[in-house]
Amino acid sequence: MRPTLLTPLFAAATALPGIGPKIASLVDRLLSEPGRAARVIDVLFHLPHATIDRRTRPKIRDAPLDSVVTLEGVVVEHRPSRSAKGPYRVLVEDETGDVQLVFFLANHQWIERSLPVGARRWVSGKLELWDGHLQMVHPDRVLDEAGLAKMPAVEPVYGLTEGLSPRVLAKAAVAATQRLPAMPEWLDAAFLQQRHLPSFAEALGAMHMPQTPQNIEPTSSNGVRLAYDELLASQLALVMVRAKMRETAGRAHLGDGHLARKIETALPFSLTPSQRQALDEIRADLSAPKRMLRLLQGDVGSGKTVVGLLAMAGVVESGRQAAMMAPTEVLARQHFERITPLAAAAGIEVVLLTGRDRASERADKLAGLESGHVHIAIGTHALFQEAVIFKDLALAVVDEQHRFGVHQRLALGSKGAAVDILVMTATPIPRTLVLTYFGDMDVSTLRDKPAGRQPIDTRAVPVERLDDVISAIGRALQGGAQAYWICPLVTESEELDLAAAEERYGSLRSIFGESVGLVHGQMKGRDKDEAMEKFQRGETRVLIATTIVEVGVDVPNATIMVIEHAERFGLAQLHQLRGRVGRGSGKSTCLLLYKGPLGEVARARLEIMRETEDGFRIAEEDLRLRGEGEVLGTRQSGTPGFKLANLDVHAPLLAIARDDAKLILAQDPDLQSPRGEALRVLLYLFERDEAVRLLRAG
Ligand code: ADP
Ligand code: MG
Q: 20, 97, 436, 697: which could form a disulfide with 60 (CB 3.0–4.6 Å)?
């Protein structure tokens, strides 16, 4: 149970002043996670990324242009425009000069009330020179003396969503800091002193009510304090999870290789050297009496699935069972279809478990797993459900890991005695991040791609040439090709993504007719499968899709990838999408349709895409351009899984937090001491509940 002192922080954000039902939906869009509304703590942890400094108070004559200044002066004259659409100007002067305040589509009443002629006013905003006059267009602040006294000299700037006013959010954030309860200090006193760190509450207060722009810097003592707390919470949780996993000693699953050999014989290709090496490493782990926790990294198309299958065959040889978990139904089904015929060649029984099996089918499958008649289960998170009981689960293979949390991994691990875990990811993960997300996992890497792959011809094409692209695709289709057409990512809104996809679907269908298919995230599962299968079977030749095909889908005959509004996608995502083609022996093309003018980062991204197909290089470039967040494929900025820490800046703290966590748990494994009690509060605060649950279980 979460300590009651934290209750106010986990209340709905609507508890904050200014957040009514209407605003709440905007705040949800900005801050909530699927399945639950935004809470006070989400507002609190949404830190400002910049400030507006209104402390500069020059005389009008000395005021710098193009930066924010606060000017004091007397209102001299109003000059409403003669035409309805013209600007309303107000002249303000001090003893050194004058400035025109300019209001477009002005609310006359408001202007007359706020800026009466003869009154002394303070206006704050950006000053510019226009036609020889100093002017301030739509000042951010128009204040009398009383207003000035209340104006924050340094104003935090938050990431927003359309329709949400910055002031509403700022006010809510301040109110949220006032709800912070008195919490015990969980950091070591000497450490705090040595690093001159404020308390957790002080740091949050300073972030939301900065006195200087430096207060909100990630490298400031406030930024460091908050990041360290979050990193410590995550490292404590990881160390606890690891300890728990190690507690149950592993088992050896010594297969003799006879089933894996049969599968290999049935493969239409031979393994690449890195697949072979990864497999050797995995088999060595499996045959040792310790628990395997191994990450298999390999670029898109490097052939991870077959490695996972051969690993599973290894434990089946020893009379035990294996499970493979995919993040989506589409992928689970694809794995199932790929694996079943190969497994059959070795007499291995496989079932597919998804969220929508009919009851009778499901009962049969579950019975098969429980009796041990079925050797391998492939599925989505449906595999976690309590009703799923294995006779003797020995290995869990988790595909495209970063979509699952530690907690889910644990749930699968608990389905058998000392289950070995193999995590497969297409995202080359820098060492520091491996540490963060996976603890001390062992890593196997697939560096080479299967032989016979041809380079993908990647081009950036301005959207103005859409018609040319469509006719080129028409020609390619006639030649037997298949194409993916990825629709624009409309930030923040799945509904808009969908609208864009449907519109494109309509327009391409009017050109190419029945051969065009559509798949998107909001389709019902069965419809999604059907759309994918039709494309896989070649019944549809062009598949319009939202980013749902980003991860893992494999249709070797598809050789064309069109990505609309490519400038909106992150590098990792572009690379993943492109990885859907170039999988067969045919020559493939990737067209990055963009709408100019391109920003610097977008231009660099498209450039890198054209230059290289090397996922590791792309990951590095991505890291350089955008920070770790993009490397792991999450769209929000910052480091995924973290709200306050950003490993671009705070990576050095990670190792300290890790040592700290180890030391703490070595001395106080059940967090019983006074500091331990405080650390439990920390774990709840950062919602590392799974760790606390472990404590209780232990
Ligand atoms: P990913 O690593 O992206 O998950 P997949 O496992 O889906 O890649 O494999 C991509 C494609 O490459 C599949 O069609 C698979 O059958 C094929 N493949 C895998 N290994 C080899 C190999 N050694 N030689 C040729 N093709 C291979
Ligand atoms: Mg895959």
A: 97
